[in-house]
Specification:
The complex is a heterodimer of chains A (719) and B (79). Chain A has 31 helices and twelve strands. With 719 residues, chain A is α/β, with parallel strands linked by helices. Chain A has a domain at 16-194 and 259-277: P-loop containing nucleotide triphosphate hydrolases (Rossmann fold, 3-Layer(aba) Sandwich). In chain A, strands 2-3-4-1-5-6-8 form a seven-stranded mixed β-sheet, sandwiched between helices. A two-stranded antiparallel sheet of chain A has the order 7-9. In chain A, helix 3 (116-128) crosses helix 10 (252-274). Chain B is an alpha+beta fold. Chain B has a single domain, classed as SH3 type barrels (Roll). In chain B, 16% of the residues lie in helices and 41% in strands. Chain B has two helices and six strands, in the order ββαβββαβ. Chain B has helices at residues 25-33, 67-70; strands at 6-7, 16-22, 41-47, 54-58, 61-65, 73-78. Chain B has a six-stranded antiparallel β-sheet. In chain B, strand 4 (54-58) and strand 5 form a beta hairpin. The termini of chain B are close together. The chains are: A alpha/beta (719), B alpha+beta (79). The interface between A and B is medium-sized, with 39 and 31 residues.
Amino acid sequence: MQHSDFPQTEPTSRQVKVSLVGNPNSGKSTLFNALTGLHQKIANFPGVTVEKKTGYSKIYNSSTGKPTSLEITDLPGTYSLYPKSPDERIPFEVLCDPGDENHPDLVILIADGTNLKRSLFLASQVIDLKIPAVLALNMMDLVKEQGIDIKLDELERRLGVRIVPVNARKGIGLEELKQAVISKLHVPENDIFETGPLAPTLLKKIRSILEMRSDYAALQIAHHRDAISGFHIPQQQKKDIEEAMSTHEFDSIKIQSFETLERYKVIHEILQICMVKAVDDKPSWSAKIDKLMIHRFWGYVIFLGILFLIFQAIFTIAAFPMDFIDQTFTGLTEAARNALPKGVLNDLLVNGVLAGIGGIVIFIPQIAMLFMFIAILEDSGYMARVSFLMDKLMRKFGLNGRSVIPLISGVACAVPAIMATRTIGSWKERLITIMITPLMSCSARLPVYTLLIALVVPSKLIWGVFNLQGIVMMSLYLIGFLAALGAALSMKWFVKAKERSYFIMEIPVYRMPRWSNIVYSIYEKVRIFLFDAGKIIIAISIILWFLSSRGPGQHFNEITQQIEQLSTEQNIDQDALNKLESQRLEHSYAGHLGHLLEPAIKPLGFDWKIGIALVTSFAAREVFVGTMSTIYSVGKDDGESKTVRDKMQAEINPDTGQPRYTPAVGWSLMIFYAFAMQCMSTLAVVKRETGGWKWPIMQFFFMSALAYCSSLIIFQLMK
Amino acid sequence: MKTALVKLSDLRRGARCIIDSFTDDVMKQKLLEMGCLPGETITVDRFAPFGCPMAINVSGSTLSIRVDEAQSVIVKPLA
């Protein structure tokens, strides 16, 4: 699944470009959602796969009523303008490259009122760039609760920017913030921390080359000498800067830490005047919860328990809406078949398009639920605890505590999961995480698992509470996870480390998940699944319909004629008709393709029909179900609509006279889908993230080989 | 009385200390930005299972840091 732009009704008048800048966990996304609502689009920053969220908002001046259109870009959370990872590079580039397409007209700085010192560190850096800014002081409810008193007027005067206290979760202060954004903002005269003296002649030189207002922006340019070549400024200016840099001495590391220390000193002084904090040493409720949540034993028990509950819920609760969708589509198919005149068009619509759409829509409940749980875990702050708990274990496998989040997200979709590896600082750990993430069972496999489990695993209760099908489902996820760990372990030995790995991160306090954030997240993910993956699935469904309803040679035409003759008769011989239908499929283009593959996949227990599905699902796994729907509704058009599961269940293996889908075939197929690399989008993202074809090609071959061998063993043992 | 300086990684759970200096430039910059400034007080909140990473409380937030990273932080233990 790929992230892409979706049609957006964009206001035509000139838009004010706004960047949202803040620390991680400062409530940035909540504020972004609150400001833009659903008028968002997700794309990537040019050249990198760092997710870029852009939203639109129209603000009416409260006194004149004049509207202003804003284009708000949510920049990745960072602690400073000095990038340590590809993610953190974005704020620097957008804010310091005047030619960048996202370079803002103004900045909304978001500060966590309960951690003002650190928030103001980043804020003061941005203010010193002399870009017009408003400071949204967030979490004012917690500020009050913790007995912190902030003197806003004084702080405003010291920082030189407007400050608006907000509570982004509850939407308090938003209107004031919006009005402040459209009011005339002026840039403060003085620097909060004066940078000029750090390298006076060099900074003056850079300022004059780029005609800059700010010493600090010039200093940032000097620090990021290597990034200048990517800036959107005239070549001559780049050359001049390069020349200035080579003639001046500039010790970047030393100046960075000097600035950091001095800047903190200034902020400390400001806060001594502007903030009074009641001494409060009693442990917060967050710390109390953590006694249990990251306990050396109970921590793991709770983590496993949470995962278990999630899979149970996905399998049992989602079944209700899924049944409903299933029935609706069966009814719809029936209605369409009867309402439309018989012919090719009817056939295409019912067996090609509707079958394809039905195969996609039915998985929305499960995908939505999965993303809901992931969003809740992330939003509540629990995911950071999971990283903390797992780091030591993960390192044994050449991974990082931060690999856990991509791995868990991989359960939803490998594409965003692989993008999430950008927070891992070490190249080796990041590469291994990228390589093994597709082994985690993603939501595209869910349809396949669901179908196959329903076919070969009886639905019964174990110990009176747990559904056996749910347990099998969870074990498939577990198998994927174990395979991922095994693959990581073997990669650990032959991938060379480029640099030291580090793992320093904040453990945020627990917060109630923000339901609106979760809704946005679900909406976004479902939309991507429906439209991006859906497009491929429908296209493939139609191609498949064509391949399976047309065939080469005289024989195919003869069968078709016989079928037509037979179906016009008064007393239809159903058995004979079914046989003919089946023969027709076998002689269609699709049948030929499947037959071509059969010798290779027969040892795995697969027949030529599964062969067709394997071919089509190389684009995307979930196509398997759509393919099966098409194959079976074309093959056994017996006048009444049955679900694909019923039809597969009724399939008889002509060699044995027994049902085709025995447990051995079902398991072999499930394991094949668990391990095989069948996702073009993932390969494309891996290529982008690793900068070449080497790793995606290796990934493709190792996963396919693993799938083939495992299925072979499973089938030969179980049959 | 002058207390001997130790590495942050040598402290036990619940111990408090004051940041003195850093022995690694890259870690130093990262820690400074996150609010670990010389003179700040650190409380060792806990160690993760199997002894690594460790969670520390510093200037109002909780950070997770690996033991080998904590070796580069020189601190003055408080009684």
